[in-house]
Amino acid sequence: MDAITRMRCFIQVVDSKGFSAAAREMGRSKALVSKYVGELEDELGVRLLNRTTRQVSLTEVGQVYYKEAVEILQRIDDLQASVQSSHKEVRGRLRVSAPRSMGDDMLNEAMVEFLVKYPEIVLDLRLEDRFVDLVEEGFDLAVRVTQLDDSSLIARKIATFSTVVCATPEVIEKYGEPKVPADLVSRPCVIDTNYRFKQNWAFSVDGERVSVAVKGPLEVNSAAAAREAGLRGLGFVRTPLFFVYHDIRKGNLKAVLEPYSESQLGIHAVYPHRRHLSAKVRALVDFLVEWFAARPTC
Asked: Could you tell me the CATH number of the domain that includes residue 76?
């Protein structure tokens, strides 16, 4: 039995939170999975798992080994997938999750162009403003516009974007144009609660990250609704530039506080940890990188 197979068994036991569940997932007997993990511990000369009748947990050294083993196997899987993908057709069903606001505004266009390029793909695109569980809900890929904290996911940045604070000329005339971020405290703001810090808007002031607590007449988990509220004069809106780019060019909205904008953020393609990129997923990620690179708003 090779070390990689033992390593895979160990990782599956940890991910499945038990030997029985791991055995079912791998299509092996519980006794065999237990044997492989025991052999791995004997080979290393350490105990990786604490075992009870109901559950297993990682020892301190097991936590270190698990993290490193996951990364090693990911590199092995990615290498194998890269070689195999060059000999496979881009075809099959592809299930993708993305924010509704992004899809309605620009991602739909990208996906249509992708399907034109790869006619053997059947795309199931789910647009909703929530973080889906990729593994539990069976998604191949998710497009996310946020800071990523979940270490169980692999991410590739497909584009960068800037956020902008903006309002109608009428709102700016009525309340006055904010000159520094703190001026927003006394002005009505429309809050998109999809943002990680919601009512606390972050800015860069003299190289330091400064958070400003804002409030206003509307809090909504939709960039589309926040944009519409901004266009209707309900207050200042913070949103990705690509979402209001044309509104600003037409003069319907005006950007403010531009010198204090945060550094560019990322649009990421994410997929479950250790799942190698199939030919169809790799093709979509590569396509999105090229597509966004050609857009002036990203």
From this structure: 1.10.10.10
